Amino acid sequence: MKCLSAFLFISLSSSIAQITPQPCASRPFSEMADTSSLPLLSPELAQRKTAKIRLENGMEILLISDEKAAMSAAAVVVQAGSWNDPA
Fold first, then answer.
1. CA distance 39 to 45
2. Parallel, antiparallel, or unpaired for β 49-55 and 60-65?
């Protein structure tokens, strides 16, 4: 019985260790400061949480969190084409 209890304890401990998130030494993004000087005219928009990050590949991301939103969405803007051609 003691052997079975020890086995269950070890197996549960190892399974919990596998699902516990491990801290990363380096994050795949860096946080950016919000330098926008535009005022928010709607108080509802001021309640939203925002964050700007830059990924390792240089892509800049604006994250907006609204707990009261009924739906979620995503959008991508890619600066590509003849206007953005460096040549």
1. 10
2. antiparallel
Residue with tokens 């030494």: 25
Residue 74: other Cβ atoms inside 10 A? 4
Strands (E), 1-87: 29-32, 49-55, 60-65
- The whole-angstrom separation of Cα 58 and Cα 81 is 18
14-70 pLDDT, tens digit per residue, is 444 444 445 555 778 888 887 778 777 777 777 788 888 888 888 888 888 888 888
Whether the full predicted model's pTM is greater than 0.70, yes or no, is no
Which is it for the CA torsion 37, 43, 45, 50, positive or negative?
A: positive
